[in-house]
Amino acid sequence: MIKPGSYFILGNHACALGAIYAGCRFFAAYPITPQSEIAEEMARLLPKVGGVFIQMEDEISSICATIGASLAGLKAMTATSGPGFSLMQEGIGYAIATETPCVIIDVQRVGPSTGSIFGQQGDVMQARWGTHGGIYEIIALSPSSVQELFDLTIQAFNLSEEYRVPVIMLSDASVGHLRETLIVPEADKIRLVNRRVATCNPEEYKPFEAPMDKSPPMAILGSGYRVYYTGHLHTEEGHPILSLVRYHLADKVWRRLSAKIRSNIDKIVMLETKYLEDAEVIVISYGMSARAALKAVMDAREMGIKAGMLRLVTIWPFHDSLIRDLCASAKSIIVAEVNNGQILYEVKRAVDGDQKVIPLLKLVDTHTPDEILLKIKEVA
Fold first, then answer.
1. pTM here?
2. Angle formed by the axes of helices 11-22 and 146-163, nearest 10°
3. 343 in Cβ contact with 283 (< 8 Å)
4. pLDDT digit string (tens) for 50-83?
């Protein structure tokens, strides 16, 4: 294990290191660029801490193995890129339905289909709506630096354990392949959330019984509790519901899948803001593009333009009311993202109808500060 200190390190390696520090002891994945360095590093690190690495035959089996390891009591992670992320969607839905904590790293790349290995932020909506049905919430994070690939991977595990939900890290290829300084703190300075396990009498245990704003404690498979996991609608006891006559028995469980996230949105959502107090033009961005946005905003300030930046560290859940409040005084809002417009529509939905929401879209790679500065000057 790497010792605390300062290191010049690859972003994808920092992600793997963060997972080890978070307590991840199982990793299953299939090689795909631009995430392959995560798998390579996990294969190197996990045996040193008593963990298990498996290279699976594809991404479907990778997410399923990850879910199985989690149900057996281990903190578990998989990593992939766009095409593999698509293949994982049914498994992600199963993890949502069975409230199985796990972490999925998606180092995004150009699509559709196999596309190319160039970077893109094209899986934002796939993370939110990719799996079946629409009665669920997901958590997705967006790192902008090598340090955040370490820190947010730990945070992803913490959120996953707290809310018993798969947490997705939407990384950029340009962040994953970036080399820069990583500060590794002392292990006892890192906050970890470990699994809440069932402690009641096994005869009294209901695996999906909890208040609407919480997730229930888990019974580890093989620990003496009777647990039945199914992706079907199910009761608090875990019994599948296959008849509308008995649907009411599953209604509370299914509503809680969303409520446990939405009720805690103020605790979950992380945003970074710069110069918003008097900003007339606000740039909303995330991932690598947010770094260019900050430079552009600082350059604009030097020119006398009242510009500000709002960075989405947490992509999902999308905090409509907070973003609306933060943007309330701006005349124009620029949304800079590397896709055909995904968060753009969330911002339009959230803010005041009188405010101009202006897209600044690229379809590959990332923005430069000059590209964003030019748009700021146009709308200021």
1. 0.97
2. 30
3. no
4. 999 999 999 999 999 999 999 999 999 999 999 9
